[in-house]
## 1
Amino acid sequence: MKWYISLGYGVKFVHNNDRGVIQDFPNSKIFIVEKEYLEMLKKALNGLDLNNMETIYKEKWKETLNFLMLNKLIRFTREPYIKYFHDEWTAGTSIPIESDSISEIKAMYINLVSSCSLDCNACEKTRLFPCISCVKTPDSYRPNYLLNENTIIKFMIELTNHGCNQIFLTGGDPLTEFDKLIGFMDIATKFDLNFFLITNGMLLDKNKISVLKKYKLQILFQIIEDNVEYNREIENRVILLKEYNLPFRLVLNVPNKFILDEKNIRKENIIQNYPHEDLINPFKNNLMRPTMNISFMKQNKCLQFKMYMSQEGDIYPCIAFYKRSKYNLGSLKNRKLSHFIVELEKIWEDKSLQNQFCNDCILNEYCMSCIVLKEQFNNLVKCNMRIH
Ligand code: SF4
Ligand code: SF4
Ligand code: SF4
């Protein structure tokens, strides 16, 4: 059985021919990789399996692997590293990786359009994976708050002042109303923010891509584990995006197989089942579940630092709360962003949002599952991962 490594959550590796740097964003650390280690590390991260690494590089690799584990820079996978896929939750349940202490809000989700080019079964239902990022609301007329240039500028200034650096544009599918999307981007990209376009990708073609290329924008779409037809379409879009050099991210909407595998659900089992137990043993007390950052271990983790704005300009904790009047925090037309941040902070810590069913589950501290989905657990619908 082969094992591979890939970089952990929020860890990046950049290099030239002489040197490399591993950036660990969640822990604000930087590690220099000297030239003599460069080729070896590149090989491991490009998908050479661990047995081969050990055969070729012997003690040097063992030491390096120890170092990478000790500093929690890697995770172990059953598949080689796949360059264009990200199994991090860039949208949805992920925590944005820039974890400075200044930002009060890190990710803003803006609903630009209500229509969509697809008709997914899952639409408007609560979904665990992926975290809900788009829902269409086709039958109603919704005045779009963000039509006015002054409104957009005021909004962008406020977001910047509060440390927000990631804007996710969603819908429906924003590509169904391309002019509106471009109108927004023309104004908004003057601000130093990272823009992500959440789309199902179906309407992406050469013309649209060459227009989108003018903006500082990344395309964000998902690969769905069991939908072969859809994934084939996405594959074609990926070829186009690469051809035009438009940045994109794919979110794999499957959980990390090793970590969430039933056999490995307990931390001790992760250690036991890991094939190089002797290597992992010295660190077993420090071993964290990959993709988790201890500083975010609070109530309602998936909602932290996020804000969602509906087309009408109303603020909610996330798209899954849309139309629930209790969680409609009011309109941005009448209030400043700081007001909403105070209200959101209460929701991020609100224990009453947690389901009793999860209270004695030992995974609760780590569980990033959808709050809205968890609310629905009752005697009939339960989480089958519960361990108590
Ligand atoms: S792509 Fe999103 S908005 Fe469109 S139908 Fe599917 S789930 Fe709904
Ligand atoms: S019961 Fe399921 S949803 Fe609840 S905390 Fe445990 S793993 Fe998470
Ligand atoms: S409640 Fe959390 S996981 Fe569910 S849709 Fe909202 S942000 Fe995503």
## 2
Amino acid sequence: MTRTIPHTMPRTRGALTPGRPLADLTWLRVGGPAEWLFQPADTDDLAAFLKALPAEMPIFPIGVGSNLIVRDGGLRGVVIRLGRGFNAITVEDGRVRTGAAALDAHVARKAAAAGIDLGFLRTIPGAIGGALRMNAGCYGRYMADVLVEARAVTRAGEVVTLTPGDLDFSYRYSALPDGWVITEAVLQGPSGAPEALEAAMAEQLARRDATQPVRDRTAGSTFRNPAGYSSTGRADDVHDLKAWRVIDAAGMRGARRGGAVMNEMHPNFLTNAGGATAADLEGLGEAVRKRVLQHSGISLEWEIMRVGEPAPDKGKENKE
Ligand SMILES: Cc1cc2nc3c(=O)[nH]c(=O)nc-3n(C[C@H](O)[C@H](O)[C@H](O)COP(=O)(O)OP(=O)(O)OC[C@H]3O[C@@H](n4cnc5c(N)ncnc54)[C@H](O)[C@@H]3O)c2cc1C
């Protein structure tokens, strides 16, 4: 059945799709549909759409879904996914101007070719909007270190420029208000010889390949490293604990629930080994948290974002 667009939904030059499944738009390949999926044509289109959208309609921007579990019941409201109109990457005056839909890896390579070191982005599988929102980083460098300014469209449809101070970055966190959509960023980095930058990125890719299940269906690190944890509270008793170690010590490497598994290669990578539901993945993650708490007293914190509604309880529905 084709659904017609109700008169409350604004007109757009982009694509507005009702009931669009989201599983194929996420790395874990799970989750129910978006009530609406909106792919704006460009920034003006996005701003006009948000201005006209009823204020009570929730919106949720997604990048390439590499840090998300979308629950099996899907997401209410409008999921916004930036596409071709937001992909451009240009280099001006030693800085990189990039659309929010550009992949981190493409930005890193284009920057390297122009002699700018944004190499840490080469191995992170997201897009720039998600990288900013999450303050993505690795090998000691984060988006917070390279951002000059960003453009965003507010929930009310206003186009604004944000400074790093506005975003108040910390570990995997930015203060971007809910419902704001990042559309563009200007980044800077140290200069370097393009060949040397390419070589360093190749080495980091090889290191990832050797230590992380980069070809499996995952969303990266499942839990934050409980660094700084101290059993005595004394500064001299701070252990640099790794989440994978405490998961392993609790006997949860390889643990399974339905199609979900704690990866054998790296037990902090929750993996869809085939046929997992979002409930399998989230349920296994919660079981791991519980077991680790019992085993070592450490309360692991999710790094993967879980969004949306659980699947409707069919048994309950039938009884009613
Ligand atoms: C194999 C693997 C390795 C990984 N390694 C790392 C790593 O080393 N370091 C690291 O930091 N992360 C890592 N991650 C996690 C993930 O890649 C990052 O968090 C990434 O920045 C998410 O980007 P995304 O485009 O996929 O965002 P999504 O997962 O789609 O969304 C993440 C968040 O960003 C928001 N968002 C996305 N786009 C926009 C936008 N345009 N405007 C406003 N908000 C937006 C979403 O609403 C959501 O809150 C890894 C993931 C995988 C699968």
